[in-house]
Design brief:
This protein has 564 residues and is of the alpha+beta class. 51% of the residues lie in helices and 11% in strands. The chain has 3 domains: 2-144, no CATH class; 155-365, no CATH class; 370-555, no CATH class. The chain starts with a helix and ends in a 9-residue tail after the last helix.
Length: 564
């Protein structure tokens, strides 16, 4: 009988029949199913093959009492192998601590062995598994000595851009020059009092490979950072402290990060290269991409935050991390973690020995507060009788009043036409006012949309608007609520190049020169009487429009020509 031959073959192969794991119901495995599975495992190392055969033996014994002789229309080799591994008590087929560390980076599984079984079965049987699941694939390669194919396809990231919206970005792996540990200094808000730590992908321009070209390609660099997905419009302190927010490994343009920290919040940025070889860079990049698409976990600002999650990631993925004393400690604060990393050989800590040289090399980005203070000092010295004495009081004045002061000060306006540096200083202050105004509009708009978003999208509300204005309003105002509240679209694996990726792009018309004026006119036309919040929105868009006008008029000043 064929089933008896199969049993003898398994026994002669060095496996003894054993009792199944307690409380684990066994499914039968026909000889034909086993033969099909065994054929696909021929390239697997002998110890692993023997362990799998041992798991198959009791199932074949059950099958011997069955009349089934074919493979079966519902037979799935990957599911069958996963089932065999899942119920194994053999150490060779069991999840170890290293696997559990990687599991925590990808999913919250109640059963590490179940996740291990699914992952190993997919790795052994599915040709595209290594490129779609590099985190587990690197682990199996190291544990079992199994070969992993070289993956060359572009990697997708879903980038959150201030100007572009939520857009997919496909990165050719060969364009990666380095990965830096990035630290933003402390801020004034509760959530930023100990700084923020993330990873910076130094990406070369297409067709360029020189260090100078790659390092100076700041608009092409990406930042990957663990952050809370705050799916509402104001930070809830209770949720922030209790872990109620969900965490993801988000991707941002580096220049957006720089603008947010160095310009908007006057914070410094420090950037240290990880000491990795070219092959190690490629491996880490792919694993980070999988985490970017798969990870979703609890986020608590003081116990499970950007620092602790990044430590967890580097402990599992960064070569040499577990050999350093830093691996024995848990750093709850981003600033202390960054300082500890700086003292190891895992990063090029010497890059920050001289901040002046570091700034020239792109490893340190100073706060822009000094530039604005210098601009303010120049403007104060140039005006006859300024009605402000610091940046805050300057920004608190309405833009119309700010410009009237310039026009009314004859000596000052004449100097603007003769002294380019003074004119640049005046424009710089107005640009800061524009940046702060945009943040205020976003905050006010988000809060209003949170309370009245459904009403704003009703046909009755939009009735006063022409067709083009309705489209503009939806794209440039209402869509902002979706960017905040929409859950991050996680996937079970890295999407392949044929995948259609989600996006919430911000149309170019929202960034046009006249966009603030148009939005102000639309909000005024809709008009929601009795709503103080709505009136604040109208007022803020008017201020933005007037500030934009100030900048344009200042930029048009020719030498020795008065402002009109």
């Amino acid at each position: 009988m064929r089933w008896l031959s199969a049993l003898l073959l398994l026994l002669l192969g060095g496996c003894a029949f054993r009792d199944p794991a307690p409380d684990a119901p066994l499914h039968s495995l026909s000889l034909r199913q086993w033969e099909t599975l065994a054929t696909t495992l021929q390239q697997v190392p002998d110890p692993l093959q023997r362990a799998i055969r041992e798991e198959a033996l009791p199932r074949l014994a059950i099958s011997a009492r069955s009349t089934q002789t074919d493979v079966g229309s519902e037979y799935n080799a990957t599911e069958t192998l996963s089932d065999l591994i899942q119920q194994s008590r053999t150490p060779l087929l069991s999840a170890d601590e290293e696997f559990r560390r990687r599991l925590a980076l990808l999913e919250a599984s109640p059963s590490p062995q179940h996740a291990f079984a699914d992952a190993l079965a997919g790795f052994l049987l599915e040709p595209d598994y290594p490129c779609r699941h590099p985190v587990y694939s690197a682990y199996f390669q190291a544990r079992y000595g199994l070969p992993v194919p070289r993956c060359t396809e572009p990697l997708p990231f879903l980038v959150v851009s201030r100007t572009e919206g939520l857009v997919p970005f496909w990165l050719a792996p060969e364009r990666l020059y380095a990965i830096h540990l990035l630290f933003a200094g402390e801020g004034s808000a509760m959530a930023s009092r100990f700084g923020h730590v993330a990873l910076r992908l130094v990406i070369c321009p297409e067709g360029e490979t020189s260090p100078e070209a790659c390092e100076s390609n700041l608009y092409g660099h990406l930042v990957l950072g663990y952050m809370a997905h705050i799916d509402e419009f104001e930070l809830n302190s209770v949720k922030a402290l209790s872990g109620a927010y969900r965490a993801h490994l988000f991707a941002f343009p580096f220049m957006d990060v720089y603008r947010g920290y160095a310009i908007d919040e006057f914070r410094e940025l420090y950037s240290l290269p990880l000491t990795l070889s070219g092959a190690q860079l490629q491996t880490l990049l792919r694993q980070l991409d999988e985490i970017h698409w798969r990870f979703e976990g609890d986020y608590s600002f003081f116990s499970r935050n950007c620092a602790t999650l990044l430590q967890m990631t580097l402990r599992a993925l960064l070569p040499g991390y577990t050999e350093q004393p830093i691996s024995d400690d848990a750093y709850l604060r981003p600033d202390t973690f960054f300082e500890a990393m700086r003292e190891t050989s895992l990063v090029e800590g010497e890059r920050l020995a001289s901040l002046a040289q570091a700034e020239e090399g792109g490893y340190y980005f100073s706060s822009t507060e000094g530039y604005y203070e210098a601009a303010l000092k120049a403007v104060l010295a140039g005006m006859t009788s300024p009605a402000f004495d610091d940046i805050d009081t300057y920004l608190a004045r309405p833009p119309e009043v700010r410009f009237e002061t310039i026009v009314g000060d004859r000596r000052y306006r004449e100097r603007l036409g003769r002294e380019p540096h003074l004119l640049e200083a005046q424009i710089l202050l107005e640009e800061l006012a524009l940046l702060r105004g945009e943040r205020r509009l976003q905050a006010l708009g988000s809060r209003y949309l949170n309370d009245y978003g459904d009403q704003l999208q009703s046909a009755e509300t939009l009735e006063p608007l022409a067709g083009d204005d309705r489209a503009f309003f939806r794209a440039c105002f209402l869509q902002s609520v979706r960017l905040v509240t929409a859950a991050f679209p996680t996937r079970r694996a890295i999407p392949d190049p044929q995948s259609t990726l989600p996006s919430l792009p911000r149309p170019a018309l929202c960034r046009e020169e006249g966009a603030p004026a148009r939005l102000n006119a639309i909000l005024t036309a809709i008009n929601r009487p009795g709503s103080d919040q709505w009136q604040q929105l109208i007022y803020t868009t008017r201020l933005l429009d007037e500030t934009t006008g100030n900048i344009l008029k200042l930029q048009e000043i020719p030498y020795d020509t008065p402002i009109r």
